């Protein structure tokens, strides 16, 4: 049996996580009072009850009782009850945006106060849970379906999970460098398909453009050298507590070369034991601008 404690930042996706686990057959309880966790575990682990998997949600809504959670978890360990902690995290900037979009107040924001103050206070109060978490999923850059897919890997397919997400993003320099970039790679040194009339309307997702770019020996050399660097950097990022990396690959318009290289890089990174995503920020902007 799996006993999962879902926790994390308000607005990060805890409700989605609990609903996903429920859909996967877990018996779920939202906002279970901390004083009842021990009794709930007794029932869940009772052989006669025959519960396969359970999940409970514990967060800042517990109020002052949250300070008793450490003692409660220690008691579970004493009783030899196995449990896993899933911590759903998100950047402060994204959380502020989400609260504003839904017009909700943060649970710890004083009336008329700033949302960011409530977020910072919450982060301080639940940091001990993040430190003890078995799984940390940062939803700052995840679509809901991507978040659910990660949960499915961990709690349904039982795939070994590494708390590190790599996002490969193609972009066009003429539209600006993505603000959340950690590493920026300029591939404008490669031959440009834009100057081929047949290739111009296509994108790096099309085989003709992909072949045009990758037939250049420099493209393969670049990927080999860059993968060497990433393979060195990622373990060291993890050692320093970083849980995600955004690699931005840019060409002039973000339509041909950057898309091709981002796709190739994604294919190579997928073989590493991390969660990898690929986005093409500006792939359709050239057409929109021309229409305007």
What does this structure look like?
With 292 residues, the protein is an alpha/beta fold. The protein folds into two domains: 2-155, 3-Layer(aba) Sandwich (Rossmann fold), CATH 3.40.50.300; 165-291, no CATH class. It contains ten helices and nine strands. The strands form two sheets. A five-stranded parallel β-sheet has the order 2-3-1-4-5, with helices on both faces. Strand 2 (27-29), helix 2 and strand 3 form a beta-alpha-beta unit. Helix 1 (14-23) packs across helix 6 and helix 4 (92-102) crosses helix 5 (115-132). The longest helix has 23 residues, at 217-239. The chain is elongated and about 70 Å long.
The name of the CATH architecture of the largest domain is 3-Layer(aba) Sandwich
CATH superfamily grouping of the largest domain = P-loop containing nucleotide triphosphate hydrolases
- Strand arrangement within the widest β-sheet reads 2-3-1-4-5
Number of helices: 10
SSE pattern = EHEHEHEHHEHEEHHEHEH
Keywords:
292 residues; alpha/beta; Rossmann fold; four-stranded parallel β-sheet; elongated
What's the arrangement of secondary structure elements?
Blueprint: E1 2-8, H1 14-23, E2 27-29, H2 37-44, E3 53-57, H3 69-78, E4 84-89, H4 92-102, H5 115-132, E5 135-138, H6 144-155, E6 165-172, E7 183-186, H7 207-214, H8 217-239, E8 244-251, H9 257-269, E9 275-280, H10 285-291
Parallel strand pairs: 1-3, 1-4, 2-3, 4-5, 6-8, 6-9, 7-8
Helix pairs in contact: 1-6, 4-5
